[in-house]
UniProtKB/TrEMBL annotation:
An annotated Gene Ontology molecular function: hydrolase activity, acting on ester bonds
Key words of the record: Hydrolase, Signal
Top-level taxon of the source organism: Eukaryota
Native source organism of the sequence: Ceratodon purpureus (Fire moss)
Keyword Hydrolase: yes
Signal peptide: 1-22
Family as reported in the entry's similarity comment: Belongs to the 'GDSL' lipolytic enzyme family.
Designated name of the protein: GDSL esterase/lipase
Taxonomy of the source species: Eukaryota, Viridiplantae, Streptophyta, Embryophyta, Bryophyta
Pfam families attached to this UniProt entry: Lipase_GDSL
Length: 382
């Protein structure tokens, strides 16, 4: 505990006071590293090391296009963090539960776990009790940050941790649990109370990351669940009126939680002056809901021919049977499908979202991920 406490003090105080040698960046961006936390949208293989009572993507046809083999990503190819790594000229992040080296800890680590939620109880309700929780992901990062400081020294650690890009996406599993598991909804109380607890826990995790060096953070909002193949399938099983009401209710909850996350980003950014509590912290909000809604309404504009069905799956909307199930099939034109499975995107879908969020669009606030990458942190000379 003493070691951790000293680390927190060093990272908070030295951000303002230490001047260190700059570093060469092949990409031209002052980004020496990145760290990823989230659910299946970002999982790069951590569930391969958990193995039981979590969603798995370690079998064919997962990974069939870019990697030519399954590797734990819930897609046919690359995910958002992989695409960012290409631009930053950094390696693909190692799963945090693998046998990571100190060099990897100081470069690129992915803590995400399919089935993870903001609240651990949500994962339990959805049948993924062993998913690596948001709290566990942040706790492991805190330990890695300590390792980086003691391996490289405070000066170099500031370059690594302060200039890293932190990518966060969680909340989908929480809302799925609330709207598909009545017993769970009854235990967590009214929707407004539940959403407030999710937002409060999310903020608590961001605060912990900040205390351990995070300064450049991308917060991904939650997509429109009713427009995913799984959402369409679940609502199709209900009587028409009930299905329509369910879609409206769950997407309303998504928008409410997204609003709370967006407001959190605004509040923290407004408190990032050099003499304020969150000095030098800069966050970007990626509006996944708005982006995916626009894509589903205007598929040809984005180069898609199918935005309703899972490319890999079976039954109604390709979401009745899981990708890889004996009754599942794989679509012929993966690049023309937005969704790979019941919830996650194809590499083509991830590329479209990446272009909207990285290059800049109306779906990313207050500015693009590219601009976030270019920001210089006060106290760290370049």
């Amino acid at each position: 505990m003493a070691k951790m406490a000293m680390t927190v003090v060093l990272l908070v105080v030295c951000t303002m006071a230490v001047y260190v040698n700059g570093f060469d960046s092949p990409s031209g961006f002052p980004v020496p590293s990145y760290y990823v936390m989230g659910d299946a949208f970002h999982d790069a293989g951590n569930n391969n090391f958990i193995k039981t009572k979590v969603p798995m993507a370690n079998y064919k046809p997962y990974g069939m296009t870019y990697f030519k083999k399954p590797n734990g990503r819930f897609s046919d190819g690359r995910i958002f963090s992989d695409l960012l790594a290409v631009i930053m000229k950094l390696p693909q992040a190692a799963p945090s539960l693998s046998n990571v080296t100190i060099d990897q800890k100081g470069t690129c680590i992915n803590f995400a776990s399919g089935g993870s939620a903001i609240l651990p109880a949500s994962s339990v309700a959805m049948g993924a009790p062993n998913a690596f929780t948001f709290d566990q992901q942040v706790t492991q990062y805190e330990g890695f940050a300590v390792d980086v400081i003691y391996e490289y020294g405070v000066d170099q650690a500031l370059l690594i941790l302060n200039d890293a890009i932190y990518q966060l996406n969680l909340g989908t599993i929480d809302l799925l649990a609330y709207f598909t598991k009545p017993n769970y909804a009854a235990t967590v109380g009214p929707l407004n109370t539940f959403l407030d607890s999710l937002a409060a826990e999310y903020l608590r995790m961001v605060e912990r990351l900040y205390s351990q060096g995070a300064r450049k953070v991308v917060v991904f909002g939650i997509g429109p669940i009713s427009k995913t193949p799984l959402g369409r399938f679940l609502s199709s099983k209900m009587i028409p009126d009930a299905g329509i009401k369910w879609c409206a209710a769950i997407d309303s909850a998504v928008r409410q939680l997204n609003g709370k996350l967006s407001n959190m980003v605004k509040r923290l950014n407004a408190d990032s002056g050099l003499d304020q509590m969150h000095a030098s912290l800069q966050l970007v909000y990626a509006d996944v809901y708005g982006a995916v809604t626009d894509i589903t309404r205007n598929p040809t504009k984005y180069g898609f021919t199918d935005v309703k069905n899972a490319c890999c799956g079976g039954g109604k909307f390709g979401a009745e049977f899981l990708c890889g199930h004996s009754k599942s099939k794989t679509c012929r034109s993966v690049s023309k499908n937005l969704f790979w499975n019941g919830m996650q995107f194809t590499e083509a879908g991830n590329k479209k979202l990446f272009s909207l969020f990285f290059g800049g669009s109306s779906f990313v606030k207050p500015f693009s991920v590219q601009r976030l990458c270019k920001l210089l942190i006060p106290g760290v000379p370049y």
